[in-house]
């Protein structure tokens, strides 16, 4: 019996007429090595049937508590036919990147059917150059970025030949309690909720200076320091910078529409810049995003005179929790130096900012996201989350956007015999987190970006991808010429 955590339920209840809270990814495939030179829906369905037991999240559906008095439970679907979740389509000629992005954006707009396991796959044929694409989405209440990558990985192989997978053992089925038991548990939890909420409030107080909006309250730093001292934590933590998000076109209520763009940047170039300036790959990624956002805002005449504020998800999943369905993540809130004109200044300031944020996180891992999710009773959360998100976006947005960097494999992988050329991740947009989301995934020598936007906020989403490439060109020029062994032949 597994019940959604408060954080899982937050992602579930964030959904509304304008918000679809699933995470997704687009794998670009070269089917030349696949049987018959093509990836077929039948082959994909067969693969899923063979390996479904390796991805627990795909065989579960939600079991709601009567009247929404508690968080839902997970229940296994006996005899699940994965074919019902696998779809196929073809792009019209010429099958270019813009057509693929448009098709994927339309699919990404649609919410998942909560009466069934919360996932879908769409095999898209007809991409130029004889390529195909696989778009897969899973609800955020079931997976986070890291577990999503692991879920995809169970379908992939290290060679074009499919590996042999052991058949499933016979574990106890995941079942939900009956309605009476659910209501009894909900009553027990509701009685204990005030005490749990007070404990959560006490734990949040230690991070008050790192929580957006709350950090700007008078005395927030003093309260946080005093709370840590009372708890016996005498470590010196880096002082958090201002976390006040400026007003931008990215923020405000979003519509149900989506726009998507994608592209790749050589990981070797990113590593060369990182090495030249003594930074991490993630520091360079954050700088690229800051530079691209600055260029877009300047083009539209709305560049704020202070840094944007980004939420950066951080995986906290342990080895013992690898097979746990749901979210195991925290978040760092960090400024992005979009207010600095010089690329080198942005790079250096971003590096210092990220180092301080990481030291702060290591010294006091932020648990406030989960604690905040637990503050309101489940019955209130289920009804009020999406409304509260929309109100916050109008009154005082806590962040400008989410930027996420998910590490991936360094060698090529194969799906049904087809080589995976790139994997472009996609996340969710909400009123609270802003109308643009930038996610990247490192794979086989590339950083593969996926940029999702609300068209009411960012219509020309391909310009952001173009600005990312321009920002990479700026930084590689600053890093100097490639060493001879990396020189590109004429």
UniProtKB/TrEMBL annotation:
Gene3D superfamilies registered for this protein in UniProt: Chloramphenicol acetyltransferase-like domain
Pathway involvement of the protein, from the record: Lipid metabolism; Glycerolipid metabolism; triacylglycerol biosynthesis
Keyword annotations of the record: Acyltransferase, Glycerol metabolism, Lipid biosynthesis, Lipid metabolism, Transferase
InterPro entries per UniProt: Acyl_transf_WS/DGAT, CAT-like_dom_sf, O-acyltransferase_WSD1-like, O-acyltransferase_WSD1_C, O-acyltransferase_WSD1_N
Recorded catalytic activity of this chain's protein: an acyl-CoA + a 1,2-diacyl-sn-glycerol = a triacyl-sn-glycerol + CoA
Domain O-acyltransferase WSD1-like N-terminal residues, every copy: 4-285
Enzyme Commission identifier(s): 2.3.1.20
MF terms in GO: diacylglycerol O-acyltransferase activity
The keyword Transferase is annotated on this UniProt entry: yes
Domain of life: Bacteria
One annotated Gene Ontology cellular component of this protein: plasma membrane
Keyword field contains Acyltransferase: yes
Transmembrane segments: none
Top EC class of this enzyme: transferase
GO biological process: biological process involved in interaction with host; glycerol metabolic process; response to hypoxia; response to nitric oxide; triglyceride biosynthetic process
Residue stretches making up the O-acyltransferase WSD1 C-terminal domain: 326-475
Recorded family membership: Belongs to the long-chain O-acyltransferase family.
NCBIfam families (alphabetical): acyl_WS_DGAT (TIGR02946)
Name of this chain's protein: Diacylglycerol O-acyltransferase
Organism of provenance: Streptosporangium roseum (strain ATCC 12428 / DSM 43021 / JCM 3005 / KCTC 9067 / NCIMB 10171 / NRRL 2505 / NI 9100)
């Amino acid at each position: 019996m597994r019940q959604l955590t408060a954080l899982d339920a937050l992602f579930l209840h964030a959904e509304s007429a304008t918000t679809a809270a699933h995470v997704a990814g687009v794998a670009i495939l070269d089917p030349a090595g696949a049987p018959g030179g093509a990836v077929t829906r039948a082959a994909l369905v067969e693969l899923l049937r063979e390996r479904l037991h390796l991805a627990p999240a795909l065989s579960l559906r939600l079991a709601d508590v009567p009247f929404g008095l508690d968080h839902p439970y997970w229940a296994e679907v006996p005899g699940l036919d994965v074919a019902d979740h696998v779809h196929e389509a073809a792009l019209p000629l010429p099958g270019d990147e813009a057509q693929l992005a448009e098709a994927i954006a339309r699919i990404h707009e649609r919410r998942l059917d909560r009466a069934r396991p919360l996932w879908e796959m769409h095999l898209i044929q007809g991409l130029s150059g004889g390529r195909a694409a696989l778009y897969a989405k899973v609800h955020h209440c079931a997976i986070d970025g890291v577990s999503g990558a692991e879920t995809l990985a169970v379908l992939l192989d290290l060679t074009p030949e499919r590996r042999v997978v052991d058949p499933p053992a016979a574990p106890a089925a995941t079942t939900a309690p009956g309605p009476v038991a659910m209501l009894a548990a909900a009553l027990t939890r509701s009685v204990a909720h005030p005490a749990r909420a007070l404990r959560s409030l006490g734990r949040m107080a230690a991070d008050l200076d790192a929580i957006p909006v709350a950090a700007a309250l008078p005395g927030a730093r003093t309260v946080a320091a005093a709370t840590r001292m009372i708890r016996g934590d005498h470590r010196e933590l880096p002082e958090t910078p201002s976390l006040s998000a400026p007003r931008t076109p990215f923020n405000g209520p979003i519509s149900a529409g989506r726009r998507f763009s994608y592209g790749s940047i050589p990981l070797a170039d990113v590593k060369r810049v990182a090495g030249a300036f003594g930074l991490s790959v993630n520091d360079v990624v954050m700088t690229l995003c800051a530079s691209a956002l600055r260029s877009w805002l300047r083009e539209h005449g709305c560049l704020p005179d202070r840094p944007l504020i980004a939420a950066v998800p951080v995986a906290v999943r342990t080895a013992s929790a690898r097979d746990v369905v749901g979210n195991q993540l925290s978040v760092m809130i960090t400024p992005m130096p979009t207010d600095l004109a010089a690329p080198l200044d942005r790079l250096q300031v971003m590096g210092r900012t990220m180092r301080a944020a990481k030291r702060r996180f290591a010294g006091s891992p932020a648990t406030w996201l989960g604690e905040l999710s637990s503050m309101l009773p489940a019955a209130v959360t289920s009804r009020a989350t999406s409304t509260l998100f929309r109100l916050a976006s109008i009154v005082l947005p806590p962040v400008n956007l989410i930027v996420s960097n998910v590490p991936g494999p360094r060698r090529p992988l194969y799906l049904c015999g087809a080589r995976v050329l790139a994997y472009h991740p996609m996340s969710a947009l909400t009123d609270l987190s802003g109308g643009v989301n930038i996610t990247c995934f490192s794979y086989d020598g590339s950083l593969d970006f996926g940029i999702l936007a609300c068209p009411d906020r960012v219509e020309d989403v391909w310009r952001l991808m173009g600005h990312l490439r321009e920002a990479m060109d700026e930084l590689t020029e600053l890093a100097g010429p490639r060493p001879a062994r990396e020189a590109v032949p004429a």
